[in-house]
């Protein structure tokens, strides 16, 4: 019986110590996270909490690298913010849209859609990447549903105040460096210019085009949310230097089908001949600075037409 | 059910208190029920395989004990054929069929035997080996046959070590099911430390390293020499942390309830020879092979002198490689270790002289480094998706292709991985220097111990990879 009491006593001490550490470390990490002045987390925070741009561009790295906010803004005479983020998927875009629409109504939403938008990830990498939204779980109820896609036990893990910053500690530590506190964000309203030129030649398109039903459902929810809030939406598919048969691709077909049903225009530049030029690419999936300038101009003029006729 | 899931945490938190609440005579029922549930969370129907081998081995054990002479051997053979048969069917059928097709193709013949579309039962190699050790030990007279069917079933199915070992011996485990285990602080404390460190190894080290390693091994031709080198080094730590992590959680969950399972790892990367490495790595499997394969082969051919040892070594390591997986890469992996151990056996005297000529610190550290490098290179065959992929990795590695410090988007992953490896090595070093116990986890000051628990738990929450996937050895 003495052992039993000792075990309980030691466990109680450990639980209390962990509880205090969790609160303390969680609060410190939260402070550093929300006072960042640059980087992807800073931009995510902007979209969720601050930005009130007329045009919001959503998407993955392709959105972040392809949509020059200055070119599009000048052409439309509207303010533009690029909410694209590396390795983000439709769940992330949807959560960001939900959070942004909670604060204000943009005049136009652009959703850059990848040719493999509904790719099936065997190990759930797409949902794992939602970790970048966890710091907002407590303060933004509208994104909780998306955060919980990470797993059945996610809501219990999120009882910890440190857990939302899992795997973010490195960037948090970098923030402790004095130089990081004063460094400005290197994007132009979310747009990141990639410098360098791809030299690999036209690549084969090898991604399986089977449609992940959950991803497809969230894509539809994204489109329908804009429709419900009466916010004009344009779906774009930016160029890739891969030999894709877009017409036969099931992912692309699904995009077209959903957009047609909701009366949303699709600007498909996946294999646009203008971009059959290796010099426009940073790698097979991303345009470089030169390519993005050309692309942004083309998209801007189409968006202008769309807004004029709206 | 994976150890690294909240499902298991809940399971553990229910089963462990129940174990202590129940009267001793009912505990085996709880453990057996829990073990069945644990196993059936993978593929429920496969429990029938376990039931089949359990029934065969249970009766074989009793019949072996009752009979004498050739009859005794006959029952042993029935047991071995049943176990090896199940293993061969589920694990090696397609491999053998594939090689038969290739062989027949050489002679212009076609193979009409169809391929099987079956999923390998989880932990099959582990529990069949454990079951075989029982009938062999009964046959040898080292263990009396277990009459209690439930207890024997529990010996094969005990959930902490059911799916990935340690591969227990009946002499060590069976009697423990009859012993009354009271709740003790010592068992709780040791078990908790093992579980805690096991989770750290799995979540912070293994699953973190696997992010980079998997990316590289998926397409090795696309990576520079430096990246391949990093992936090769990382994999050595990944597989160690993955398997040792599993073993620690297994030992810890059993220990909390008072069961003492075999130690499976003993700081293997501090080995100064490949022979020593195999005494520190996956100890339960290697002693199994040593007791039931190597020694009998060597004794049977003792007239051959040294050749008998070499022959026994190569057979044992070749089969040990094959035990890991049905593929030539695994066999090559095993044989490479067999070659190294054979070399060490044949050059024992020369190396002893050499060790006296070189200062001990230099000799032992250099040996440690060489063993580590050799082991890392053999892991290439173990990890690569095919034999040709393994050759691509090695060719590109030694071709020194690409820039050295091009880590592109992987810098964050690599920094986290290096931090994880540094903590792992610091822990192992403290165990190595502190007679098998971690300096910090077993520190005499309760405050230091508590601080260490907190450090490990906080690190798991902050840089652990959750839901990173199953343990590598589950597929064996």
UniProtKB/TrEMBL annotation, chain A:
GO terms for molecular function: hydrolase activity, acting on ester bonds. InterPro entries: SGNH_hydro_sf. SUPFAM superfamilies: SGNH hydrolase (SSF52266). This is SGNH/GDSL hydrolase family protein. It comes from Mucilaginibacter gilvus.
Automatic annotation (TrEMBL), chain B:
GO terms for biological process: alginic acid biosynthetic process. The chain crosses the membrane at residues 5-22, 28-61, 73-92, 112-129, 222-241, 307-324, 330-346, 358-382, 411-429, 450-473. It comes from the Bacteria. It holds the Pfam family MBOAT. It is found in: Cell membrane. Keywords: Acyltransferase, Cell membrane, Membrane, Transferase, Transmembrane, Transmembrane helix. This is MBOAT family protein. It is a multi-pass membrane protein. One of its GO terms (molecular function) is acyltransferase activity. Belongs to the membrane-bound acyltransferase family. It comes from Mucilaginibacter gilvus. GO terms for cellular component: plasma membrane. Coiled coil: none annotated.
